[in-house]
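In the design runs reported in the main text, the only information available to the sequence generator was the tokenized backbone. The following block is the verbatim input for one such run; it is reproduced so that readers can re-run the procedure and compare outputs position by position.
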């Protein structure tokens, strides 16, 4: 079973993403800050990390830099999940090295397709 780390500080967004992923058969781990996400990533070695950009401590771009510099996590796919709709902001996010970018509000079909691309399709329960 694929494990997905969700790093998201908004409780409603966290619940939505968690519910979608668990319904699809993924195991989820949750963090509400960038530093907590980094600690959980090191501890659990997830198959995929879904990273919010605006976090209360370090932002998602900073967290990605730390993940990429960590040999045990460097190859882990990291998908940015953000409500940033300004083109220059999106450009900055994509240029920072994320494997993919998902906008909020989440489009269910494209979100699930992106997750399956990086974490694999979970076996049916």
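Verbatim output:
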């Amino acid at each position: 079973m694929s494990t997905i780390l969700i790093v998201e500080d908004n409780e409603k967004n966290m619940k939505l993403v968690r519910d979608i992923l668990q319904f699809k058969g993924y195991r989820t781990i949750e963090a509400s800050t960038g530093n907590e996400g980094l600690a959980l990533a090191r501890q659990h070695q997830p198959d995929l990390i879904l990273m919010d950009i605006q976090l209360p401590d370090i932002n998602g771009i900073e967290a990605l830099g730390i993940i990429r510099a960590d040999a045990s996590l460097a190859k882990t796919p990291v998908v940015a999940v953000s409500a940033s709709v300004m083109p220059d902001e999106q450009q900055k996010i994509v240029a920072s090295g994320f494997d993919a970018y998902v906008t909020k509000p989440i489009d269910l079909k494209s979100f699930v397709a992106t997750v399956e691309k990086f974490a694999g399709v979970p076996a049916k329960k």
